[in-house]
């Protein structure tokens, strides 16, 4: 351990790291840096939980959930979200073991590099970077449009620009400032959903009056037209959509390298985040379906607004506009953080120029941050000038990219555990172990792989699968072309001991 010029303690790459370090035993203190990086460990367990929630709970729940109910029916939608939650939970259990054993920032591609191959590591990083980059463009646009409700006379781009400045500043000041900002953004969403479920529950049981009902509505609307009113196929399509809706929970892995005591914070965040998501998503859908006929559930307006209006809550539209705006800002905040850390990690692993890994005295990788914001701005530009071509392709690719990352996570954990045992370690040495290994890990891998390829049978999403497969091939092609160019140069290679997979290869 050395001391930097600013007086902060830093772990250097030349310093030895024990197996305890690999298992997540990290130094403690307000100025402690992440292992072998100059990124600061400024996040706590509460930040980790809210960041993960913030990455998932967005406009999909507040605006599009009614349309999902309209397509699959109440019971079909609940079933789809339950199945999707199981798949995500299995993936998160495998990610937990990896993140605690090797708490590195930008973890997905580092794991894929070590346990699958450097080409796959590069592809996974690019996939995840693109997922959030495209999301950034759409969130900036949405923020500008939402502000039109209160300021109809102002240009949309002004509010989009204000959103861009706000989110960039949140990420640029420090990881602690980002975490606090995201904590409060996500908290507003959580409070709104809890209030919705509580008020809706009172209305369901007749405590509050509901327009159109003389008595308590109860749960008659859920089954009055049958369990699957439109057949089972819409339920299948909804399961695919749910996988995309739950993407963002894996941010827990991205933040592990900047989290204090990851062996405690990461497992706690995984368990609490998943059950909260199930409660929030399924609870909201039950309330919507019970109070609004499924045929009318949010087809033209947010189901949250419909429910609040039916109960007679004043200013329902303005309240939900504020909540949705918060959701947009939260998603953009998490998205910029995720893309920045992927760019930083690629630089740290020497897959792109190493100066992208350089951080300032606050531990913020400013060059990576600027590059990521530039990517978000390009996505925003493409959504304006090429919405039916370039942007449509980007959206199609990003939709399936999260599932590709999940597949890689599950497989990496399987290989990691095998190597851990083969190297003479015991399972008891792991600070956190995936429950039910290997069944849990293989179930996560198989279910994610099946859901990826079954997209082909959904006509509306078939384009996304084709675009994703082409993009995957292109990423691998770029990597191998780069490797061929590198082989023609003299590059010094530092051998890394097999028992220290967390050390970057120079």
UniProtKB/TrEMBL annotation:
Keywords: Amino-acid transport, Membrane, Transmembrane, Transmembrane helix, Transport. This is Amino acid transporter. The chain crosses the membrane at residues 50-69, 75-95, 115-137, 157-178, 190-211, 231-253, 274-294, 319-344, 364-385, 391-416, 437-457, 463-481. It comes from Bifidobacterium vansinderenii. Residues 47-482 form the Amino acid permease/ SLC12A domain. One of its GO terms (biological process) is transmembrane transport. One of its GO terms (cellular component) is membrane. The keyword Transport applies. Residues 1-33 are annotated as: Disordered. It is a multi-pass membrane protein. Residues 12-25 have a biased composition (Low complexity). It comes from the Bacteria. Residues 1-11 have a biased composition (Acidic residues). The keyword Kinase does not apply. It is found in: Membrane. Belongs to the amino acid-polyamine-organocation (APC) superfamily. Amino acid transporter (AAT) (TC 2.A.3.1) family.
